[in-house]
Amino acid sequence: MAEVLETVPGHGGELVLRRDGAEFEVIENGMFLMDARNGESERLLVTGAADRLASGARMLIGGLGVGFSLRAALDHAAVGSVVVVEREPAVIAWNRTGPLREVHGAALDDPRVTVVEADLLEWLRTTSEPFDALCLDIDNGPEWTVTEGNASLYAASGLERLSQLLRPGGVLAVWSAGAAPGFTARLRERFAEVDVVEIPVPRGEPDVVWFARG
């Protein structure tokens, strides 16, 4: 049986950090959000983007999670700096000084990392910062959002805003717990190159990561 380590109010409802054996899980408003069991697809989100970039790339990671993506970014030779946007202060604290720190080897202490506590959609509307890669993992997928308002991020208007923040040759990478054909079609309407990568998981349909550029 999973052990509840902490329960706190969050922007999307009650946030619960629990341990199931040796693994950690985060639940938001009764919905399973993330765990530390595997992370293969979360790592691919950033490594696949970084593989398409030159050295010294500036990367945005939307959603800190359990730090898998951040750790993979810092370990990639092409990544020079990372901005992480996370709206839940508890998730930041669990990763910075709490139990999740051990999952990624204290990645938040790396001087190449800047953590911004903000709602990603609101932050994207106001920022003028350019990036070589935008790596987004704030929902269970374009058609399975944690917060209803997040759906606009995956609409045509959201993709247009994201493209405005990409430097020439930059990459947009998006994670999902399942296929989303409508989102694939919208990406192909906006970007010249779109790769759809499926990653098998122990149970259920494969995770999906999209890479778009141009």
TrEMBL record:
Entry coiled-coil feature ranges: none
ATP-binding keyword on record: no
Alphabetized InterPro entries for the sequence: SAM-dependent_MTases_sf
Keywords (A to Z) from UniProt: Polyamine biosynthesis
Signal peptide start-end: none
Pfam families assigned to the protein according to its UniProt record, in alphabetical order: Spermine_synth (PF01564)
Keyword Cell membrane: no
Name listed for the protein in its UniProt record: Spermidine synthase
Natural source organism: Amycolatopsis rubida
Classification of source organism: Bacteria, Bacillati, Actinomycetota, Actinomycetes, Pseudonocardiales
